[in-house]
Amino acid sequence: MDSVQLGDRVLALFEDGRSFLFKVQDGKLQTHHGIIDLASLVGKNYGSVCETHTKERFYIMKPRLVDEIYKMKRQTQIVYPKDIGFILLMLDVHEGKTVIDAGVGSGAMCAALARAVGTKGKVYAYERREEFKKLAQENLTKWGLADRVEIKLRDISEGFDERVDAIFLDVPDPWNYIRQCYEALNGSGNIAIVCPTTNQVQHVLEEISKFSFVGIEVWESLFRQYKPVADRLRPFDRMVAHTAYMIFARKVMNDWRD
């Protein structure tokens, strides 16, 4: 069985649904349910039951990427997991693909892209703010994905260095960079753009129509969680409703020289 080692990242999952994500090392972690002696977890099997100093029970679990994203250190709005999965499929990102992440922010979407391209692919991330670049690098390193990503500190108005299979564009004014994205995409390449408001979507659609893109789609993802209680099954009272509009398109060639 796989057991906890010193330096592992572990999720402590309590019976009330609360969870805490931390690195196993010498020291103690204060929680709402009591103190966890971190070093005491070493050698225990994942999935095992442990207790805080107040005898509150919790399970030690391997954190999923979705756990890391929800609990990550961030300085920007992130792409939510409910949208990430759909974006990955629409971009057709898988082992060996090359992808540009334009506007890396805190690194949530970049991490999902990096995991999807595998060890044979590559993500080229562009960010113009030094503090965001540094935070994204820290997060990717923490999650063991930094070797799949090359982060460049540059304004994307200058264009991209690569020709790639897919582009994810997440900046406040994406319509200003459609030309740069078109030039960086391989033929039949996919682009995904996220916008929080409808007027931004309109600007993108107006601009993207000037280039040889086909299969243009606009989506909004609404996702509702239910309370897992069999005898009174009902939705949670609150939900993350609108997060972003997602625009997808595919590049075709408009000139034999492309």
From TrEMBL:
Biological processes, Gene Ontology terms: tRNA methylation
InterPro entries tied to this protein: SAM-dependent_MTases_sf, TRM61_C, tRNA_MeTrfase_Gcd14
GO CC field: tRNA (m1A) methyltransferase complex
Start and end residues of each tRNA (adenine(58)-N(1))-methyltransferase catalytic subunit TRM61 C-terminal domain: 71-227
Membrane-crossing segments per the record: none
Keywords: Methyltransferase, S-adenosyl-L-methionine, Transferase, tRNA processing
Quaternary structure (record): Homotetramer composed of a dimer of dimers.
Similarity comment: family membership: Belongs to the class I-like SAM-binding methyltransferase superfamily. TRM61 family.
Known role: Catalyzes the S-adenosyl-L-methionine-dependent formation of N(1)-methyladenine at position 58 (m1A58) in tRNA.
Protein name per its UniProtKB record: tRNA (adenine(58)-N(1))-methyltransferase TrmI
Top-level taxonomy: Bacteria, Thermotogati, Thermotogota, Thermotogae, Thermotogales
